[in-house]
Write a structure and sequence with these properties.
The complex is a heterodimer of chains A (328) and B (249).
Chain A: H1 10-36, H2 41-63, H3 72-88, H4 93-115, H5 120-140, H6 142-145, H7 170-191, H8 194-204, H9 206-211, H10 216-242, H11 252-265, H12 270-290, H13 295-309, H14 317-327
Helix pairs in contact in A: 1-7, 2-7, 2-10, 2-11, 2-12, 3-4, 3-10, 4-10, 8-10, 11-12, 12-13
Chain B: E1 5-14, E2 17-27, E3 32-36, H1 43-51, E4 58-63, E5 66-67, H2 73-79, E6 81-83, H3 96-107, H4 122-134, H5 150-162, E7 168-172, H6 180-191, E8 198-202, H7 206-212, E9 215-220, E10 223-228, H8 230-234, H9 237-248
Parallel strand pairs in B: 3-8, 3-9, 6-7, 7-8
Antiparallel strand pairs in B: 1-2, 1-4, 4-5, 9-10
Helix pairs in contact in B: 3-4, 3-5
Classes of the chains: A mainly alpha (328), B alpha/beta (249).
Bound molecules: adenosine-5'-triphosphate and magnesium ion (MG).
Residues 43-44, 86, 172 of chain B line the site of magnesium ion (MG).
């Protein structure tokens, strides 16, 4: 049998620090944003929650190469689960998050068992269809979900029994940032694990992975469930922070936006998900305040530019620039 | 124990096209067998039937007395059958070391670990280094595979397959596309393979076949035309006709 390396070598110490790096960056950036934009905290919180959602999508698209257009399914299930728990069972926010994660994971598991047997266009179409079915179901099941009106008046108790969610949104922001930092740490650990390496192998060549004996389908289902749990957490946070859940959590446009944000930033590295989300949300916010009807124009233009000039996303800008400089 | 691989009455058709016709043969432990035949004869298809990529229409595959015909691809790898790809199939964005880490982690049953580092097993890292030394690719350890020359990629292809420690190794045209100046590296690597390993080599280059194989099977239109020692095969009239015929096209 194999024995793990003892954790004393300097190289290992350095690499375990690098595991913390994305989380540390996010904490630093969030602290700065908190000080600079104290009156935009609700918008900042939306960005942070979206980052969690896009990071979860990076696990499946960026790491394992599974492209879907139905990631909102898990987000929506997490949102409804957290909303229902808060309304009917317990207002505890952490419990709500846990339930949201479970709801997202269960949804991912059930849908993944079918979805992940398919590829390409079929996979895209089935993932869209499943989310549509969920939206219709949420709209029909008025007794549970409030139908088209959604769940309203969701309130949560103070965080850890200590911090009351305030009107300005300070606690909500800090709460969301902490969850994001935790999620990033988990993802970073996962990426450097044997499981993470296997995912990158599947993304590189599924046929070769099978030829070295990897149960490819099982690994895909596992990462899909993990990503689903994280997406569920993002949905649960939204429900808790906004106090509302409506059937638009299952909107097709949400799944599509997530894909766009990830492609903009660059799939495969967590930073890409963070940068893409930040850019998308800020540009959307600014452009929509200038022209509320044609903001998509700006986003579309940006996406075309990135896809042609930086096919690996904004995250690859520094390497691309040095490449170009070296050539001239 | 140690009977090697026995194939009985293996048949496969794609629609109306029969690409394997009642193939029966054995690959004893430690054997060095070459499978030759014209393009489209069904050599790769035969290899894919053995590894479980394709399901046979009928027939039996036994490894050391066990019927492995119903096992899926991953299970057959664990049972001990591994194959290199005719067209290089590597993890292009990963370094050579990472490429080799994957099959070893898989073999040791480690790829489900989420909370441990992929490079955290000292003996696995040592085994990777050893494997690279064996194939003389240790200087490429940290390069992404996509940056390697084709001949070097073929060596990594071989290393990746050896890393699963198979009992039966199938090499599908291991030197195809490799410049002749580098193909001796591959021949040498094959000659150094452990002697208890049973090797089936699919190859067009007769020079290479003579160097490594002591038994040759000639496949034509999905059926075995003949089987024998290299001398018997080259002096066979039908084989000569086939190869001379092919050379004229
Ligand atoms: N998946 C498939 N579906 C239909 N026909 C196939 C399939 N795979 C292979 N064939 C056909 O089966 C025949 C045998 O193909 P195979 O690849 O096994 O030949 P080969 O002996 O390996 O040839 P080469 O020397 O060119 O590699 C060919 O006629 C090929 O077109
Ligand atoms: Mg072939």
């Amino acid at each position: 049998m194999t024995t793990p390396v003892l954790s004393s070598s300097p190289r290992r110490a350095a690499t375990s620090l690098s595991v913390l790096l994305p989380s540390v960056c996010v904490l630093a950036g969030a602290a700065l944003a908190f000080l600079m934009f104290p009156y935009d905290l609700s918008f900042l919180t939306r960005i942070v929650i979206m980052m969690i959602f896009v990071v979860s999508f990076d696990l499946i698209l960026g790491q394992a190469g599974i492209a879907t257009l139905g990631h909102a399914a898990m987000y929506g299930c997490g949102a409804y689960a957290a909303g229902l728990i808060a309304l009917h069972l317990s207002p505890d926010p952490i419990l709500g998050l846990a339930i949201g994660a479970v709801a997202g994971a269960v949804m991912a598991w059930i849908s993944g068992l079918i979805l992940l047997r398919t590829h390409g266009i079929t996979l895209l179409m089935i993932s869209i269809a499943m989310t549509m079915v969920l939206q219709e179901a949420a709209s029909q099941a008025r007794w549970l979900t409030g139908g088209a009106d959604g769940l309203a008046g969701i309130t949560v108790s103070p965080l850890l029994g200590l911090f009351e969610f305030d009107f300005v949104g300070q606690v909500a922001f800090i709460y969301s940032v902490s969850v994001l930092a935790g999620v990033l740490l988990l993802c970073q650990i996962l990426i450097s694990s044997p499981f993470g390496l296997a995912l990158r192998g599947i993304e590189g060549s599924a046929s070769r992975m099978r030829a070295i004996g990897t149960p490819v389908y099982r690994r895909k289902v596992t990462v899909y469930v993990i990503a689903g749990a994280i997406a569920g957490i993002a949905g649960a946070l939204t429900a808790q922070v906004t106090g509302l859940v409506g059937i638009e959590v299952f909107n097709f446009s949400l799944s599509a936006d997530v894909m766009v944000m990830l492609i903009l930033g660059g799939a495969g590295r967590l930073y890409g998900a963070l940068i893409g989300t930040l850019l998308f949300m800020v540009v959307h916010h600014l452009a929509a305040s200038v022209d509320p009807f044609n903001w998509l124009f700006v986003i579309g233009f940006m996406l075309i530019l990135v896809v042609f000039v930086l096919p690996k996303g904004l995250i690859s800008l520094p390497t691309r620039v040095t490449q170009l400089l070296r050539r001239t | 124990m140690g009977d090697g691989l026995a194939i009985v009455g293996l048949t496969k058709s794609f629609g109306g096209l029969q690409v394997a016709r009642d193939l029966t043969l054995t690959l004893p432990q430690g054997s060095r067998t070459a499978l030759i035949g014209p393009n489209g004869a069904g050599k790769t298809t035969f290899a894919n039937l053995l590894t479980g990529v394709l399901k046979p229409t009928s027939g039996k595959i036994m490894l050391d007395g066990q019927d492995i015909g119903s096992l899926n691809e991953a299970a057959r790898v664990r049972a001990g059958i591994a194959k290199t790809f005719q067209i290089t199939n590597l993890f292009r964005d990963l370094s050579v070391r990472e490429n080799l880490r994957l099959p070893i982690l898989e073999r040791e049953g480690c790829t489900h670990h989420i909370f441990r580092r992929a490079d955290g097993w000292r003996d696995i890292e040592a085994e990777i280094t050893e494997l690279m030394l064996e194939l003389n690719i240790q200087s490429l350890a940290d390069k992404p595979v996509r940056d390697l020359a084709y001949g070097q990629q073929r060596l990594v292809e071989l290393a990746l397959t050896l890393a699963v420690k198979p009992k039966v190794l199938i090499l599908d045209e291991p030197a195809a596309g490799v410049p002749s100046t580098e193909s001796h590296l591959i021949v040498e690597a094959i000659k150094r393979l452990p002697s208890d390993l049973s090797v089936l080599i699919i190859e067009h280059d007769m020079q290479l076949v003579f160097e490594v194989a002591n038994r040759i099977i000639v496949l034509v239109n999905g059926a075995i035309l003949m089987e024998g020692t290299p001398d018997e095969v080259v002096t066979n009239d039908r084989v000569r006709e086939l190869y001379l015929g092919a050379a004229h096209v």
